Amino acid sequence: MAKQKGTIKNNELTAEIAWFQKIISTSINLYFQQECEIDSLYKIEPPKNGKLESLINNDTITFDEKIVIMLGLMPHLYPQILDVFFIQNKNFNRSYTEFGGWKGFSHGGFLPTGETVAFIIAGEDIEKRKYIGTMFEKEHWFYKNNILRLEGVGNGEPFLSGQLLISDETLYKVLKGKEYKPDYSVGFPAKLITTELNWEDMVLDYQVYEDINELNTWIKSSNVIMEDWGLNRFLKAGYRSLFYGPPGTGKTLAATLIGKKNNIDVYRIDLSMIVSKYIGETEKNLAKVFDMAENRNWILFFDEADSLFGKRTSTNTSNDRHANQEVAYLLQRIEDFPGTVILATNLKSNIDEAFSRRFQSVIYFSMPTEDLRAKLWLKMLPKSWLGKETNEYIKIASRYELSGGSISNVIRKCALRMLAKQTNILDKEIFKEALNKESLKK
Ligand SMILES: Nc1ncnc2c1ncn2[C@@H]1O[C@H](COP(=O)(O)OP(=O)(O)O)[C@@H](O)[C@H]1O
Ligand SMILES: [Mg+2]
């Protein structure tokens, strides 16, 4: 991420940077036993403004952890602060091993590693070095909350030689002051989906409502079920739901509205893209999505999930085998995901029983009945188009067996025709023509 001009002056963390600068110079003075009025790093009080705590979303960050986070941020916020680590060891005419550090491809400054952390915090204290190692393990909140990690340790090289990398997510928050919402890319195959519609705009069969509401209840109150009632011993974490039914019946809409109602982001992953196109890299990219979703409490919405069910047996080519491997990986991750996962598919026949058993709910989105279609038309057609003849229009329209998605297509078509004819009233000719055209599509 590009460093922005003026970040330092306007940065929330000005006080923390000043504190960290003192930490670094003191650690060097102490190490080289130069004259120094402070005899321990821990006497340098960190700012008590709570800025770092709120940025990182953790109000119990320890002194040492603060050092690690600030060190990770420095190449982005204030790289020159680390230039002291370039001093040469005159005895050997090379840089000091104990400082660690990487040199970037284009970045001229010092890029800290785990070794740099160990130098500042542990110095020559071997016991303390061990403790530094635990800060980069998978159990530590640095890893679990996707704050930072050590990366790129060479084969056979010491663990602490990995580069100290702040996550994009954390960096974004520090630089922009708001939550990071990643964009869809080849490396991040998920997209945030939103809707202008509200819960009341959704027209569904009564039974489907009930089923969806159960999912809402789970999202709102799973902690009562799992913790207060102690059922986490027996029940698998998370909730997996399968939406199936013809296209345009509101599966995507329902998933999006569940998120909106519960104030949770919904990320859509198009499986038809994944399973076929990005073979090889897929696992890594999917892992990124799952990890983020877990930390951020997103709903994961897998669309076009049919590609998961079909073609699982034929393994003629190495591509097929690869695809099968991806599918197996994905199913496992879905099953282990501790949050809410919704899969959507147009088919049902292909879904085998073994597969359905993995879902806490299977919800059928049927084509709307004539009554429901009337409701849809009434909600979607602009009142001003119809005038006094509203009832008649609705009656005509709802006879056509169309899904909610098709109904919106008809309305779009009518709007375009009306503009072409420069009229504000929908005449029956235009309406019927659009209706007929749309029903022929099937
Ligand atoms: N049950 C429904 N209630 C309200 N609007 C619907 C419904 N079904 C479809 N629509 C309309 O059609 C659009 C497309 O539906 P979508 O949710 O993408 O269908 P699916 O995912 O089942 O293919 C929606 O954005 C919405 O405008
Ligand atoms: Mg859809």
Question: Explain this structure to me?
Answer:
The protein is α/β, with parallel strands linked by helices and 442 residues long. It has three domains: 170 residues, no CATH class; 174 residues, P-loop containing nucleotide triphosphate hydrolases (Rossmann fold), CATH 3.40.50; 72 residues, Helicase, Ruva Protein, domain 3. Helices cover 48% and strands 10% of the residues. A six-stranded mixed β-sheet has the order 7-9-10-11-8-12. α19 crosses α20. The longest helix has 23 residues. The protein is elongated, with a radius of gyration of 29 Å. The two termini are 47 Å apart. Bound molecules: adenosine-5'-diphosphate and magnesium ion.
Fold topology:
Layout: H1 7-10, H2 14-31, H3 51-56, H4 63-77, E1 88-89, E2 94-95, E3 102-103, E4 110-111, H5 114-122, H6 126-134, H7 141-144, E5 148-151, E6 163-166, H8 168-176, E7 191-193, H9 206-228, E8 239-244, H10 251-262, E9 266-270, H11 271-277, H12 282-296, E10 299-303, H13 306-309, H14 318-336, E11 340-345, H15 353-356, E12 361-364, H16 370-380, H17 383-386, H18 390-399, H19 404-420, H20 428-441
Parallel strand pairs: 8-11, 8-12, 9-10, 10-11
Antiparallel strand pairs: 1-2, 3-4, 5-6, 7-9
Helix pairs in contact: 2-4, 5-6, 9-10, 12-14, 16-18, 16-19, 19-20
